[in-house]
Amino acid sequence: MITPEEIVGMTDLTPEEVDAIAEHEHTTGVLAAGMVEYLMHKHGGPQAINRMICEDIRAALHRDDVAHARALYATLRHFIATNPEAAQGPE
């Protein structure tokens, strides 16, 4: 049987990046892994992931959860560094 960690490992993203999408979509890491895999191969998908993480950073800041906002920001920085096509801009 395949474990959830192995499913997340099949994506090109880190577990933290998949967790950020799971948080944004209010779903499990396994479902988020499938979504991430789809989005990373869709035109404008990497930018959509960027926006999702940014929205979660804003939400964390609005509820004064600075520690979580910092963790998400580190995740976003890594995502953009390893996926330059994710930088915001025209889709």
Structure description:
Helices cover 70% and strands 0% of the residues. The mean pLDDT is 90. With 91 residues, it is mainly α. The protein is globular and about 40 Å long. Helix 2 packs across helix 3, helix 2 packs across helix 4 and helix 4 packs antiparallel against helix 5. The chain starts with a helix and ends in a 9-residue tail after the last helix. The chain has one domain.
How far is the N terminus from the C terminus? Answer: 39 Å
**Structural class, from secondary structure content?**
mainly alpha
User: Fraction of residues in helices?
Assistant: over 70%
- Into which percentage range does the β-strand content fall? under 5%
Shape: globular
Count of all domains: 1
Gyration radius over CA: 13 Å
The tally of beta strands, per DSSP, is: 0
Helix count from the secondary structure assignment: 5
Low-confidence stretches: none
Largest sheet: none
User: What sequence of helices (H) and strands (E) makes up the elements?
Assistant: HHHHH
Mean pLDDT: 90
List keywords for this structure.
mainly alpha, 91 residues
Short structural description:
With 91 residues, this protein is mainly alpha-helical.
Write the layout of secondary structure elements.
Layout: H1 4-9, H2 15-25, H3 29-40, H4 45-62, H5 66-82
